[in-house]
Amino acid sequence: MVFPGKKVGLIVFIVVLTGIVLFSRNQVFKSDFYQKTEYFMDTSVTVKVKKEPGAEEAVSRSMEVMKQWSLKLDRFNSESIINKINNSAGERVLLTENIYNLLKMAGKYYNLSSGAFDISVAPLMDLWGFGREEKHVPAEQEINSVRERVGLSKLEFNTADMSVILPAGMSLDLGGMAKGFIIDRGMESLQGSGINSAYINAGGNIRVSGKKPDNSLWQIGVRKPRGQAEVYQDFILALAGGSVATSGDYERYFIQDGIRYSHLIDPRTGYQAREMLTVTVYAPTAVEADILSTSLFIMGWQAGQELVENLTGVEAMMAREDERWVSSGFHKIAVFR
Length: 337
What we know:
globular, four-stranded antiparallel β-sheet, single chain, 26% strand, alpha+beta
């Protein structure tokens, strides 16, 4: 898997963008935090925690945990379990409990989204050039042919031995959920080290835990679609826990004959989802926010709204041309100005 970077820069910390001063009633200076940034998953990954004894070691452990998981879930890493599944198509592959449950989660959201979220979309991603091939617009006949090799319902699960069988010709790409899952493992590591105030940002996929050192909430701004890094000025997210992720058609795309083609492909049609400009999701965990931001974008305006309003603990903001919608509980996590 090439980590898609679909959220790079889509959510920005509401602070001086260098990270020197956090935005709050009581200024929290950089000296109150221990922060470390590394590059993996095709993006910058930052971990920021309250400066206290053991913080540096805890952050280093968290980074290492995330880097190891990023290798395990990369379909282009010849030693990853996803690569093994893809190269054993038609054969039973035994999985660890973590990986098995992750794929089952993918199946859950495949069903909830009526097939809009589908980790078996890899053949289509490759066809359009969003894997490692050159980006181009395929012929309709090619798309229709490849679509026959897409559909997570075809993946066979065996709970007894935690194994799967992927039909021949199919392949998996966890780009729509891997970053979130990896961030959750990083936060889990921090909490296991006794860190209660923490922030992890992997290219715009964000998870926070506890309040900041001054006891204020973490404040996060949402970038406007195609807005040159401009954020919405009429609200900010204010969180003491949970995760935020955004999907938009303006970060990973190519233009051919004046038409924009993004990586957000509807696996049911083989073509780009075009109704939405951006979707921001708040969820308890980073993997849920990651999955749902993709799902809602592809599902579209009406179906996306209906799904959000039926999920517990999930809020969303959706935008299309000249129109914005927020979920009924969005005010619980946002401060409007």
